[in-house]
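Morning run. Coffee first, then this:
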Amino acid sequence: MRIARVLPVPRGSSEEGGETAPEPIVALERDGAIYSVAVLDRLHDTAFSPERFPLASDFHARVVALGGAGLAELDDALKRGERPTEARLLPGAFLWLPPCDPDRALYVQLVPTGGAEGAEPAYRIGNARGLLGHEARVPFPAGEEEPDYELGVAAILGDDLRAATTAEADAAILGFTVIADWTARATERAMIAACLPISRARDFATQLGPVLVTVDEVGDVARLRTRARAGGHVLEGSPAGARRLPIAEAIASVSHSVELRAGDVISAGCVPGGSAAAHGRTVAWDARVELSVERLGTLAGVPVRGPERARR
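And here it is:
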C-alpha cells in the first residue's frame, strides 16, 4: 500500500457559521491520485467508517496501532479500478504532512562511520517536531548561506523493539519512505570545528514522504535506485542499501541502547552521492529540490532563508 497523511484545505464552516480547523486525515495513493480513506470506508460501509470508528482518520491509530486494519481491502478496490470521484482529493485541496505522527514518534538517524566490519552503528536522536511533508518550504537557520540536502530512506516501525534481533527488527518495519535531511553546511562546519554536536545544523527541518510504502510493495529496499534533481541538474546517488550495515541490523543494534516504539522513524542516513555537496555543487535559495527513490516516489522541497534572530 501507499499511505499518505494529509491536511484538507480550505477550512469548512462550523454549525455556528464560523470556521473550524481541519484535522489531518489518512489517504491512499494510486497512480498519482489521492483518495480519502474515511470516504472510502463510508462508501464501502466498513467497520472503520467514521460513524463507527471515530479514530478512523488518526494516522497513528489506524496505520500504526491497528496495523493498517481494513486498508488493504480499500487499496485492492482502488487497484481494481474502483475509484470514486467523491473520495478523490484534488491537488490544491490538501497539504502534504509527513506519513507519521510527529507527536508520537522518535526520530533516529543512523550515522555512517565507515568503521570496521561488525562495528556497532552510530546514531543520533533528531527533532521529530521538525518533520515536514512533501512540497514544504524549508526555513533554514538565520545567517546560514549554504543550504544542502541529504537524500535517504527512512523506515517507520509498526511494533515496539527492545534488545531486538535482526529478524525481529526486520519484522517490525511497517514500511519505507523518502527522507530529506536538510543540512546547514556552514553551521555544520562551525560546529565540527568547535567540537560541538551538529544538532543546530540539522534539527531545524527534515522532510518525509510523500507516502509511506508498506514492505510488501517495496520489495528489496537495498536495491532501490536514488536520484536528485536540483537547480536544473540531475544528480545520481547510490542504491538505498549502499551502506555497509543493512537497516534491519542497524535498527536491532540501536534497540539495545534505546527503546524503540511503534510509529518511530528510523533514517538509514544519506546514501553515497545523496547530497549536492557530494557532487561539488550548491543549492540555491528558493529553488525546488526533488529527491527520488525508486518505488517510494519523489519528495520535493524548497529551501528558504529563515527569519533573523531577535537581538538580545
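Helices lie at 37-43, 59-65, 71-79, 166-172, 185-193, 215-218, 247-254. Good start to the day.
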